[in-house]
Structures are given as C-alpha cells and as structure tokens.
Amino acid sequence: MYPIVYLIYGVPLNEAVSKRIDEMEADPISAWFEDADGPCGFTEVYSGSAEHLVGYCGVELARHPAVQTPVDLSAQREPTGPERSTAMERIARLDPELAALLPPVGLHLVFGTS
User: Fold this and answer.
1) Distance between CA 110 and CA 89 in Å, rounded?
2) Beta-carbon count within 10 A of 41 CB
C-alpha cells in the first residue's frame, strides 16, 4: 500500500461534510443518495486508514504516487473549459447544506492510498 495524491479541480470532501453525510445516511427522509461516483455526489477515494470519507466533487486532473516527500507536482495544470464545466455541474448538484461546509472551488490535493 502506498499513498496517492490526486490533483482535482472542484472541492475536497472534508471531515465536516463526511460527518454530515453519515448523519444523513442514518435519516431516511434526508437528501442522502449514492450514485456511481459515491455518496451524495462526491467521488470517493480509497484511504484505508482514514476515519472519515475521503474524496472530492469535481474532476480529477492528475494522480501521483506519493512515494517521496515532497510530492513533485510540476505537471500541475489548470483545468480545460470542458473540465471546469463538468466540475461546476457536479458541484451545483450538491445538497446546499453540504455545499455550505466546503472550501472554495479551485485546485486542491486529495490524499488517498492504493
């Protein structure tokens, strides 16, 4: 098992949102749902040791094995127009309560494991 760094354009799934998703799942009248990407519109990223969900809502731009510190992100790039559109469409579908708990839309690193 080794760490993987995902460069995404969108919003990372943080601990506050993860906790709220867990609460929503337990409530049968909430806005909780799961689709092909993961819970409530977020793409799940595997992280075996995480105590909460790890992932993002947006688009993945790059994936790097993090076998060294610091991670070389020299290939970092801005999203294309279609990638921005896709990310914004996905983010617009998020539950407003969850969206309010997220950081601003932009380039973010999400850390997972293999």
Assistant:
1) 20
2) 22
